Amino acid sequence: xxxxxxxxxxxxxxxxxxxxxxQRLAEANEDYxxxxxxxxxxxxxxxxxRRNQAIEARFPHLKRSDSPTDAVGAPxxxxxxxxxxxxxxxxxxxxxxxxxxxxxxxxxxxxxGMSAADPLDYTAEPKxxxxxxxxxxxxxxxxxxxxxxxxxTGENVTANARTIADIPQTLTxxxxxxxxxxxxxxxxxxxxxxxxRQAEVGGKPFANPRNAAxxxxxxxxxxxTARRPLRFFAYGWGTLSEPxxxxxxxxxxxxxxxxFSINPLTRRCPSPDALLALYAEIAQQRATLGYDIDxxxxxxxxxxxxxxxGFRSTTPRWxxxxxxxxELAWTRLEAxxxxxxxxxxxxxxxxxxxxxxxGVVVSNATLHNEDxxxxxxAKGAEIRDGKDIRxxxxxxxxxxxxxxxxxxxxxxxxxxxxxxxFVFPTTCPICGSDAPREAGxxxxxxxxxxxxxxQAVEKLKHFVSRAAFDIDGLGAKQVEQFAEDGxxxxxxxxxxxxxxxGSGLQQLKNREGWGEKSAQxxxxxxxxxRQIPLDRLIFSLGIRHVxxxxxxxxxxxxxxxxxxxxxxxxxSPENEAWADLLSIDGVGSVMAGSLVTALGQAxxxxxxxxxxxxxxxxxxxxxxxxxxxxxxxxxxxTGNLEQMTRAEAKARAEAMxxxxxxxxxxxxxxxxxxxxxxxxxxxxxxxxxxxxxxxAWMALIGAA
Length: 704
Known about the structure:
Elements: H1 11-34, H2 42-58, E1 82-84, E2 93-95, H3 98-112, E3 122-128, E4 131-138, E5 141-147, E6 153-155, H4 158-161, E7 177-186, H5 188-200, H6 209-217, H7 222-226, E8 230-240, H8 248-257, E9 267-269, H9 272-285, E10 293-300, H10 303-309, E11 319-323, E12 328-340, E13 346-357, E14 360-366, H11 370-374, E15 394-398, E16 406-410, H12 453-463, H13 476-484, H14 491-494, H15 497-501, H16 516-528, E17 531-533, H17 534-540, H18 548-558, H19 561-570, H20 576-582, H21 589-600, H22 602-612, E18 616-618, E19 634-638, H23 646-655, E20 659-661, E21 670-673, H24 679-687, E22 690-692, H25 694-700
Parallel strand pairs: 2-11, 17-18, 19-20, 19-21, 21-22
Antiparallel strand pairs: 1-6, 3-9, 3-10, 4-5, 4-7, 7-8, 10-11, 12-13, 12-15, 13-14, 15-16
Helix pairs in contact: 1-2, 12-13, 17-18
């Protein structure tokens, strides 16, 4: 359901939504800051928080005591001792576009009484996507390290912080107290290696470097943290017994001189335009930095002006985070690979320099087909302003929600001089068979059929998928391994697996990763699927254009496998059997053609027949229609129905034992014609078929 606009909310609706937002955002804060396992992405979190603020702005008297607007982080975990921050660790306000940055600059100048012409410098630096940490030094010695927590109270992780090489244990030339604040993070290469080690020991992989860094720092056992490759960038400070410098930029350089890592992309910028230029520059470099960032932070450079600007309840007036769009990132296209699917489709896949997009590390993206690579859409229209995609290009990756990542744009200014147009293959990269592109088809398809190993394996994966045979213990991973070892080559081989590998020297139970119990469970799962409903069998065959809904239509119409194959075997374009096939409501020429082609190819049909020989196919039980005036009749609906939907009318007719057809033929018994009925009614009249209006139809079935 779409959200109501803020302007149309009633006071009661606003009160209820603020309560819901408070709960949802509190849970999100706990997931992100407390559990290090976020369940919503940053873009969704930011959208919900902006909506909460907008509702509060319209109904200020409804602002809750637990308002997300006033929240920073999440409460410190009870697993650690608590640390009260002497100077609160604040969060930052967010900017999402150039207008927001201009508004920030204007608000700063207005607060300070400065005109647009007055000079005002800012310091800008990448916003590291990690875990905030405050380090307290007394007389140059590290005495305490604390997470942000809720901004006022954090978790004592001193022992863990001491294991991070980037954090100095001793400082020289500093005052009695110095609190250095920064971000703990993990390099992308180290993150990938950590996940490999996690997999080797059966551990759960981390979703992204931020989660890995946060989870590693917040270990109760510091020896585990010591084995994790954590790093630290300093970006600010808390309590000071003496100032570091007069400006933000110079203070950061002082921290660098003391031994802290300072981000090398930090710059002093004289205007909002300079800030935006640096933002664009950093966004372009994002994938090659080696660590995750999710924006650029702008701070008024003059520390005296920062002091005058001060703080709001949870954010400083002198700083803002210009966030990158959560679903977009730039990275390098390293290669284009061609994958072959179960229908023979040649699908291009982009191999990318890994980059985090929407909280997920992305290294692959779909390229759809050869037209998409060339810069053309489905109907020949230009996409990306006609820019083609080449290996070596700097590309913008798009990902939203669970959508498969794709390439949204190409930066031609960074295209390598030796980059060449991608030549799409005309032969299958797996079996070498021709891969023609038929008229009207957006993709090329390998015509190798069963001789193509890629198609065979993909068909087997589809065969055991959840909506098909769904055999316990036999998933895509097992299918790949059995096919690679030559144990199965077609679906029928699955049902002879126990006879071939259930006993003797080469037994399934003796394979690595298998045992007596798991082998017997698999054999039992296979035996259980020898009885299969007709619709599942049809879907399992992986016939192009025949999905779950199409398989159900065919199963309902024909009832048995024998009736289906007899009808399909007899059908060819222009004959009566073909017309009967097309008369099934929901079956068009494309689906019918695919079905006839698949069952008509000698090799594929022989493979299907070998499978069927092992099965007991359960027919689809049709409604008896006993006592029904339309039982056994073929009904066609045409025109507009006013008292029930077309879907409801079809379901009602089938429940009463009738067949519903999509076209009129000599076998049609009744045509129900509503307003706007056209050629179908005319044809029925010419054939002498009974025609009735909706009122007569309702009376006939007893629904009037």
